[in-house]
Design brief:
Elements (H helix, E strand, L loop, with lengths): L21 E8 L3 E9 L2 E7 L11 E5 L3 E2 L7 E3 L7 E15 L4 H7 L1 E7 L4 E8 L10 E6 L11 H4 L33 H5 L11 H8 L19
Amino acid sequence: MRDFKATPEPSGGKPRKAKLPIFVIQKHHASRLHYDFRLEMEGVLKSWAVPKGPSYDPTVKRLAMMTEDHPYDYAGFEGVIPAGNYGAGNVIIWDNGEWEFIEPGDDPVKALKSGKLAFRLYGKKMFGEWALVKIKGRDGSKGNEWLLLKHRDQYASADVDVTEVAPRSVISNKDVDEVGGERTWESNRKASSGRAPTLADKLAPTKPAPAPRSRAASSRSRSSPARSSRKAAPTPRRRLR
């Protein structure tokens, strides 16, 4: 398996084109930590929020929630989204590079609309073939649920967790909580409350429902409280003067 701390270009496969579109993965610590996966397409960055980050294990399918398109310039942003803005929190460029469309067909835009996009990544941490596959959403969902998965190629491995091995920025070598406010990004979408809601909030598991109480417990709760076995201390008599 490739040493993810090194940055050589992968070899093999069909020859690369002279100029390919870019990709960027931004590690984003908002209310919850997640990874924003972005592909340049149609002059913008098509974006997905991946709560657990990518996995090189082909048997692992990561949930990826498609979000709104981001401007191309956002690909170079590393810094802080101030409080009061949508997605407030720290952002680092966890990986970046170029990507190459594979299938289906010969048009990535049409492939994306069809619900399946296979591609090859040429990054510093992300190599080889990957795919985004749209899945049937749960009842009430907006139909933006996808899966990010690794194809079985020479880079696939179940033994390395790339997010653990290489947690830092490829630009500054900082971890996400080490980024300062030297650079900020004012979102064009303001938070609706004091704390900016994020997509990660929607992905967080709900609290389990409390276990049902037994009939005996319910019966005790409806009845009067049990009397103590200890006798009450006698009330002291007041001495008459």
